[in-house]
Amino acid sequence: MDKKYQVFISSTYMDMKAERQAAVEAILDAGHIPAGMELFSASDKKQIEVIKGWIDRSDIFMLILGGRYGSVEPESGKSYIHLEYEHAVQTGKPFFALYLTDKAINGKVMSLGTDAIERNDTKKLNEFRDLVKSRLCSEIEDLKDIRIQVPKSIRELSAANKLEGWVRASEAPDLSPLLAQLGALHEENARLKAVVKEVGESPRVTNELAESTLDLPLSLEYELETRSIGGLATTDKRHWQGTYLQMFNTLGPRLLDEPADSSVRQYLARVLKEGTVNVIRARIVESSYQAMKMRLMALGAIDIRRSDGATYWSLTEAGKALLMKLHADEQSA
Known about the structure:
Residues 6-88 form the DUF4062 domain. The protein is α/β, with parallel strands linked by helices.
């Protein structure tokens, strides 16, 4: 997906208009979204709180430091750009800084006069400048350096950090099938809880499992991928209709070896595609498979355990006894 990142631009304002404009253009040219003080609207909140909110909602913070310390926030005694920078660092916001070289600042003095340099808080400016230069930053001498550094820094930060960004709605993955499947599983889970409550623990307590307990209808949904005469693959959705007792009789002998869940799936897929022609593969629908497994557990026929990150099937003692009885009945029939 093509992500767009929101980049918050921090700088003094009147003396840095050209640099801010160059940064905005560079961000837009790179396909991203600029944000800064120009976007602030009137609010009852303190200005610094509004600014912090914008920084928090942005993906990247960038500072352009010139020759002025900037307007000072009364309570802290620090300039707004200083507070913005501190907030970005303290909250772990991905950031980069650009600072004007002495040559660039002297050039601004030639065009803007003394408004381009700090006349009041020179000590605080120098301390802040040293702080900025101690972290990730790049020096700039003219506007072309901004146009080069901005997209480069965005690329580097996006590669090094898991930025949220923005994507077009048309490019976002369609989650509706997954949500529908989760809804179906939730309904099946609720239904199986009712079954567990109804069945209770009688199979496990008495160590007996009657055939009638498993003689319940089972509809197992699966898909068959077949090869047509023209060589094209088609997928058909089908249902296996039977009872849990029939399924137990089919799977039971395999479960004596306590196989992994993946082996049970593969074996069941082979059983389901027997007798069909031109079948490439069979796939059991996940929600249907899980529902069957959970109900076999609820009825006291099987146990499921996890070991070393894998899931394994096994027969309960009651399940083994019933399997032996069914086998004996077949032999005597």
